[in-house]
Specification:
This protein is α+β, with helices and mostly antiparallel strands and 284 residues long. It has eight helices and ten strands. The strands form three sheets. It has a five-stranded antiparallel beta sheet, with helices on one face. A three-stranded antiparallel beta sheet has the order 6-8-9. It has a two-stranded antiparallel sheet with strand order 7-10. α3 runs antiparallel to α5, α3 packs antiparallel against α8 and α7 runs antiparallel to α8. The chain starts with a strand and ends with a helix. The mean pLDDT is 92.
Length: 284
């Protein structure tokens, strides 16, 4: 494809993202590959599995994968859409951020619409048997033209038996995956309950919590304290100004028991849409 690397775009946990030009098409792309210190078969396998996951979840709100290459070190390289935008978390933290569209006067409604787009992407992934497991505002990019893109599928797992051996399976997880400040209780103790679509529903609820409070739900002075807070999964405390219906949606999505949460990401999306409809009617 004649990829010409232009320079670094971002640093990740085990890899970096470079800006490159796809010569034959004259378009800029993002290249995700391993840093030298992570040039091991286990990490290369993780990157390959992320590529396979992305190939399963082609959706308007998922960052597109254009191809899979190998570099001079024979390490895998994911050729992806270059996103020109900012992480959603920056906009949640800063009401005056210049990346807000000019017509996003109602900040709460705007954030809820972004969350509904993410719910769409997650529901589609679930229909393909894929769980994201690291849903948080940092992993949603807001593009310069209002694009909403869910990124970083590096810890995603599969629940579809037909894909065993090709993708990492949910029942093979032995370690804590994801980001401690957002974890569902079953992610802390994988032996206690199976990981499933309800796990991602909890993470969507934790993201809603951050929209409403400006911070993630689990806190602690150490990693152990944060994991314990996630394991306990106490009912989230929300500011009194949060509308009652929206607070109830957040609490249900973050219920400690998976069976008590919304049955799907789509059901959560519908609840959010219903809240916005009622809110508009009340305002009128």
């Amino acid at each position: 494809q004649g990829l010409r690397v232009k320079g670094p775009l971002a640093e990740g946990g085990m890899g970096g993202i470079d800006l490159a030009e796809q010569g034959g098409l004259r378009r800029d792309v993002a290249l995700k590959t391993l840093r030298d210190e992570f040039l091991e078969p286990a990490f290369a396998d993780r990157l390959l599995r992320e590529a396979r996951v992305l190939a399963q979840v082609e959706h308007p709100h998922v960052v597109p994968l254009y191809g899979l290459e190998a570099d001079a070190r024979n390490a895998p390289v994911l050729v992806m859409k270059r996103i020109e935008g900012v992480p959603w978390r920056r906009l949640i933290r800063d009401d005056a951020h210049p990346a807000f569209p000019a017509d996003a006067e109602d900040r709460l409604a705007w954030h809820l619409h972004v969350l509904m787009d993410v719910c769409d992407a997650v529901h589609y992934a679930h229909s393909k048997g894929v769980l994201h497991l690291d849903l948080k505002p940092d992993n949603v990019m807001i593009g310069a033209f209002r694009e909403v893109l869910l990124v970083d599928w590096g810890v995603a797992v599969c629940t579809d038996e037909a894909k065993r051996g090709w993708l990492p399976m949910a029942d093979e997880v032995q370690e804590v995956l994801g980001t401690p400040a957002y974890l569902a209780p079953e992610m802390v103790d994988v032996a206690r309950r199976a990981l499933g679509p309800a796990t991602d529903v909890y993470l969507l609820g934790a993201t809603l919590y951050e929209i409403l409070t400006g911070e993630p739900p689990h806190h602690g002075g150490s990693l152990q304290e944060m994991l314990y807070a996630a394991y306990e999964a106490e009912e989230p405390e929300l500011p009194p100004e949060v509308p009652r219906e929206l607070a109830a949606i957040c609490r249900r999505a973050m219920a400690p028991e998976p069976d008590d949460r919304y049955a799907s990401a789509e059901e959560l999306r519908r609840a959010l849409r219903g809240f916005l409809a009622h809110r508009s009617a009340a305002a009128l």
